[in-house]
Amino acid sequence: MANTIEVKDLLDAGVHFGHLTRKWDPNMAPYIYMERNGIHIINLYKTSAKLDEANAALRKIAASGRKILFVATKKQAKDIVAEHAKDAGMPYITERWPGGMLTNFVTIRKAVKKMATVDRMKKDGRYETLSKKERLQVDRMRAKLEKNLGSISDMSRMPAALFIVDTVREHIAVAEALNLGIPIFAMVDTNANPRDIDYVIPSNDDASRSIEIIIKSVTDAVKAGLEDRKNEKGDDDQPKKKEGKADKKDAPKKAAKKAVASEEE
After folding, report:
1. Model's pTM, two decimal places?
2. Which residues contact 205 (CB under 8 A, 6 or more apart)?
């Protein structure tokens, strides 16, 4: 079961620090508690409530067997997201958002298949038949694809949802998800517009400690959902042997009672 994070933990991680007041987006006003030294302070009670809401929805998605794509290309977030998303068995983009990742998913899948083709060539010996120059070109292509798309190589269909760190930076991902009607979960700072985000988690998206505590919480919820799915499958696979055996044992007794009753009549 995913753990609920206390407001004190969010405070200690610096989740409440927003951007400079002159850089704010007025649509974030409902989530801002106050202004201090020219910086907006986020209302952590609302952050906690929104985080719980997002975690409940993510848990349901994971329990249904669908994928959540994590997106974070900023320096202080990429390693954290890669580590936790990988641990939860979910795809992630941390290098660069490939244009058309969602809206042109078929082309992206073709690029992923190229990686698989190169891997097969190395296994069946065809790679060795290439010239030195051709092998160098193939290796460079494979390395480039691995860097940009390696984390989504197992994603055979469109994700059920996106989780984004910094919606301003990842505006292309947001636009593509909106275009296709894919739900968006995101850490939204005071300089961003929350109106296009389905599940807003008002939080500091610049500090690594803040990112760490939020990402760990949501990936724990995802893992809890996967565990729910595993347990549900286990229950479905359990054969109902006891009921069947009991029915078989009782069948002769029932037949005998029926026969006696018919004779008495």
Report:
1. 0.83
2. 74, 77, 165, 166, 187, 188, 189, 211
